[in-house]
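B., you asked whether I could sanity-check this one before it goes into the benchmark set. Here's the sequence:
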Amino acid sequence: MKEKAISKLKGEMNSSQANSYVTIIGGFLLRYIEVNPQESEKILDDKKTIAGSLNEMMKVAKGKKQGNFAVLTDAEGYEIVSKYFGFTGTITPAMMIPEMNAVPVIEAKNAVPFNVKLEDFLS
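And here's what the prediction gave me:
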């Protein structure tokens, strides 16, 4: 069951590579089921998706909105995701740290290569 949950998460992450939030939350969910494999079936619920959990975060943030700003802490965001999926297992601080290589890098169009040496600035 854990393998099916991993496959579902990776599929959604791959199809939404332009949305770094899907990648970050997907990484959290992958780390979560490594520690709590008994909760894998909750990820397999067809009505539950990473995008759906992001929408849930948006709803909560709108409720906290002050002026034109709405902010959630990382811990609040991960707690909302956990409630959305119905998790009851352990959330560790390590689960909440995104992997640096998990966020896709989007290359700018018509980017000019940047190549400078320290010697170029010394006279």
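One thing to flag: Residues 2-99 form one domain. Otherwise nothing jumped out at me.
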